Amino acid sequence: MKTSLTLFCLTALAISFGARAETVERIVAIVNDEVITQSDLNRYAERLKSGGLTDDLLIADEAAKQLLIKDRQKLLQKMIDEKLIDSEVKKQGLSVPIEKVEQQIRTVAKNNGVSRDELKSALQERGIPFSEYQDFIKTGLERQGLVEKSITSRIKISEDDVMAQYVTEKGANSEQAYEYTLAHIYFSTTKGGVTAAKTRAAEALTKLKSGAAFEKLAAEVSEDPAFEQGGTLGVFKTGELQKELDGAIQKLQPSETTGVLPTAGGFHIVKVMKKKIIADPRTEKDRERIRGQLYEKAFKRQLTSWLEQLRQEAFIRINGRIDEK
């Protein structure tokens, strides 16, 4: 039977220690109507050292955990943040029923290859009452609900974000895939021949360079038989256009315009309305990694901001020196 720490932790949940024995001793901090005693602080440090039931939401990595063990001031700040989160859970009425707690306990047991009874026995071997573990899970689920509502649901990592980060890491190149929204002004060689069409296109380009609005000029002079409002041509991906057009627009940014481009049957002046990087087969193996990194950064940023807001709204008093043990 497995008795490792994974039996007692919920992945990505904020977890707290259960009910504490009431003692009369020095109070090191007051958070709203809750107190943190010197013994609370000491017990939390011991649980961190021994791998007991502790909250890993506010611990970035093992190095951060070791710092908390060594620095009681930082550990106190973490405990204050936990109190703030729990106060907000209570304020918003995010109580989790026992049925959901039991469901989560069975999931934890299953994920670790043991039954509920075996999990209960493993907890008892570690000196942890099962009722305490139920409270531990309940607190974790309630915090998870609060974090989902207040932070997680607001984080959106778009494909554009992922691809922009990919370009930052790997560097932009001429083979990068894009999606374009294009408009054009078209001049047909069927109206007076090649030379006449080219001349009309050159005249239009001169007007554009002099400040004429592209959409208005397109409505006035474009010879596209399927003309759309503003000269809209459509949405295209790299490689879907004629080679002459594809090569010219790759170098352009939104709102920029090509020169006169010869194609079969006529001449085009093309404007890039929108341009975005799209998924490329070469990026597939990196996309999930990049998405995860961007999400983690966004989560940490949002969590820090959210906790700071909770601190500003709360009553917090720290009472002098903290004993190291």
Sequence of strands across the biggest β-sheet: 4-3-6-5
Helix and strand composition category: alpha+beta
Specify Rg, calculated over alpha carbons: 31 Å
Taken in chain order, the helices and strands follow as EEHHHHHHHEHHEHEEHE
| Shape, principal axes of CA atoms | elongated
N-to-C span: 35 Å
State mean pLDDT (0 to 100 scale): 83
Quaternary assembly: single chain
Counting DSSP E segments of at least 2 residues, the number of strands comes to 7
The stretches of 5 or more residues where confidence is low (pLDDT under 50) are 1-23
Q: How much strand content do the residues show?
A: 5-15%
The biggest sheet amounts to: 4 strands, antiparallel
Helix content: 40-55%
Q: Count the helices. How many?
A: 11
How would you describe what is shown here?
The protein is of the alpha+beta class and 325 residues long. It contains eleven helices and seven strands. Helix content is 50%, strand content 14%. The chain is elongated. The protein has a four-stranded antiparallel beta sheet, sandwiched between helices. Strands 2-1-7 form a three-stranded antiparallel beta sheet.
Could you name the key traits of this structure?
325 residues; 14% strand; three-stranded antiparallel beta sheet; 7 strands; four-stranded antiparallel beta sheet; disordered N terminus; alpha+beta
Q: What layout of secondary structure does this protein have?
A:
Elements: E1 27-31, E2 34-37, H1 38-50, H2 62-70, H3 72-92, H4 98-111, H5 116-125, H6 130-150, H7 159-170, E3 178-188, H8 194-209, H9 214-221, E4 232-237, H10 243-249, E5 261-263, E6 266-277, H11 284-313, E7 316-318
Antiparallel strand pairs: 1-2, 1-7, 3-4, 3-6, 5-6
